[in-house]
Design a protein that fits this description.
single chain; 370 residues; alpha/beta; Lyase, Ornithine Decarboxylase, Chain A, domain 1; 9-stranded mixed β-sheet; 8-stranded parallel β-sheet; 30% helix; elongated
Length: 370
C-alpha cells in the first residue's frame, strides 16, 4: 500500500473480493447473495464498490433509500436493487430507475400499487417485509390476509421476495429468540405462498445469520458488514479482511514541558516533557470527540499513540514521546493492524458506526490489486 501524504480512506478491492468469496463459500450454490451497499457502501465508495461487486456476479444489491439506488444505477449498475426503506415521495423515481421497493405497511403497499397503476406497470417486482421480532419495519402475522388479497387483486405489481430481519443473530445468548424468529418467518411465508398460489424468494439471514444459522439461508442471504471485513465477532473477523483503511500524516511535532496543556479547554495537561504530534483529521471527518482524553489511539510506525486532549473539528493531537517518528510520517487510525471494530471498542461503539461516520470530505483512494 502507498504511504499516505494526506488524510485518505483507502478502499482495498482485493480485500472485498476475499470477503465476498468467503461469504459465498458459506452458502449452498442455489442460495443467492445480496450485497448491502447502503450508506455509501458502509462509508467506503458506493459506485466503485457496487460496480466491482457486479463483476464478481453478485445476485442483488440493497440500499436504504431510493436516492442511493438511483446513484448506483446512474453509475452503470444493471443488477437488481432492493430499496429497503422507500418513502412515497420517491415511488416514481423507483420506477424510473428500475429499483425494487420493500413494502412494509398497508399504506406503503396501497400507495405503491396506485403509483404503479398510474405509471402503467405490469408485474412490477416488489418485496414484502415481515416483522418477526426486530420491531422496526414490517407487516405482522395478522396482516397476511390483507397482503395476499391486496396483491392478488392487481396486475401492476408482483411479489419477487418476502423477507424479514434477524434481531440478534450474532448473540450466542439469543439462540432461542433467533430460532423463534426463523420459525415465525417460515410460518408466515407458508401462509402467503398458499394464499397467492406461488412462492416468492425468501430471505432472512444477515451476515451473522449466514455465519451462525445455516437453516436461515433459504433462497437468498444478505451481507453488509461482512463484505467490508467484519463478522460481528473476533473469531469471524479472522476470516475477513478490512476493506477500508483510514490514514493520515503527522503535520507537526512539538515538545511541551511538564504542566503545559494541549488543545481546547486545556483538556490535556502534561506530567513530563512530552512529544505531541498534530494530525489533520477531526470530528468533522468522523473521529468523534469521544476519542479524546486518551480513550482512542492511532498507529504510528507500528506503535500505538494515544489521542490526547479534545478532538478538534479538523485535527487531533497524539502523544508520540516513546515513538520514533517525524513530520510527514504516516498515521493509521484503523485498518489491518487496528481494525475498525477495535478502534470502535475504545469508546464502546461498533464498527458500523466508525465506518459510516467517515466524512465525504475525506479523499477515497481505490487500491485495485484484485
Amino acid at each position: 500500500m502507498p504511504k499516505a501524504e494526506e488524510t485518505v480512506l483507502e478502499i482495498d478491492l482485493k480485500a472485498l473480493k476475499h470477503n465476498f468469496e468467503f461469504i459465498k463459500s458459506k452458502v449452498e450454490g442455489h442460495t443467492k447473495l445480496l450485497a448491502v451497499v447502503k450508506a455509501f457502501a458502509y462509508g467506503s465508495d458506493l459506485g466503485t464498490i457496487a460496480l466491482y461487486l457486479e463483476t464478481l456476479k453478485v445476485d442483488y444489491f440493497a440500499v436504504a433509500y431510493a436516492s442511493e439506488g438511483a446513484a448506483i444505477r446512474d453509475a452503470g449498475v444493471k443488477t437488481p436493487i432492493l430499496v429497503l426503506h422507500p418513502q412515497t415521495a420517491n415511488f416514481k423515481l423507483i420506477i424510473e430507475k428500475c429499483l425494487e421497493p420493500s413494502l412494509y405497511t398497508a399504506k406503503i403497499l396501497s400507495e405503491f400499487i396506485d403509483v404503479a397503476h398510474q405509471e402503467n406497470q405490469k408485474d412490477y417486482p416488489v418485496h414484502i417485509k415481515l416483522n418477526t421480532g426486530l420491531n422496526r419495519l414490517g407487516f405482522e402475522n395478522t396482516d397476511i390476509n390483507f397482503i395476499t388479497s391486496k396483491t392478488s387483486a392487481t396486475a401492476a405489481i408482483k411479489i419477487k421476495s418476502i423477507f424479514s430481519h434477524l434481531a440478534a443473530s450474532e448473540d450466542a445468548n439469543e439462540k432461542e429468540f433467533t430460532a423463534k424468529q426463523i420459525g415465525l418467518f417460515k410460518e408466515m411465508t407458508e401462509k402467503c405462498a398458499k394464499a397467492m398460489g406461488y412462492k416468492p424468494w425468501l430471505h432472512l439471514a444477515n451476515t451473522s445469520g449466514i455465519l451462525n444459522y445455516k437453516e436461515a439461508h433459504l433462497d437468498m442471504v444478505r451481507s453488509g458488514i461482512g463484505l467490508y471485513g467484519y463478522g460481528n465477532s473476533e473469531e469471524e473477523n479472522k476470516h475477513l479482511k478490512p476493506v477500508a483503511t483510514l490514514k493520515s500524516v503527522i503535520s507537526q511535532i512539538r515538545s511541551i514541558g511538564k504542566g503545559e496543556t494541549v488543545g481546547y479547554n486545556r483538556a490535556y495537561k502534561s506530567k513530563r516533557i512530552t512529544q505531541i504530534a498534530t494530525i489533520p483529521i477531526g470530528h468533522a471527518d468522523g473521529i468523534s470527540r469521544q476519542y479524546g482524553h486518551n480513550k482512542g489511539s492511532v498507529m504510528v510506525n507500528g506503535k500505538k499513540a494515544p489521542i490526547v486532549g479534545n478532538v478538534c473539528m479538523d485535527m487531533i493531537m497524539i502523544d508520540v514521546t516513546t515513538i520514533k517518528c517525524q513530520e510527514g510520517d504516516e498515521v493509521i487510525l484503523f485498518g489491518n493492524h487496528q481494525n475498525a471494530a477495535q478502534f470502535a471498542n475504545a469508546i464502546n461503539t461498533i464498527s458500523y458506526e466508525v465506518l459510516t461516520s467517515i466524512s465525504q470530505r475525506v479523499k477515497r483512494v481505490i487500491i485495485n490489486d484484485a
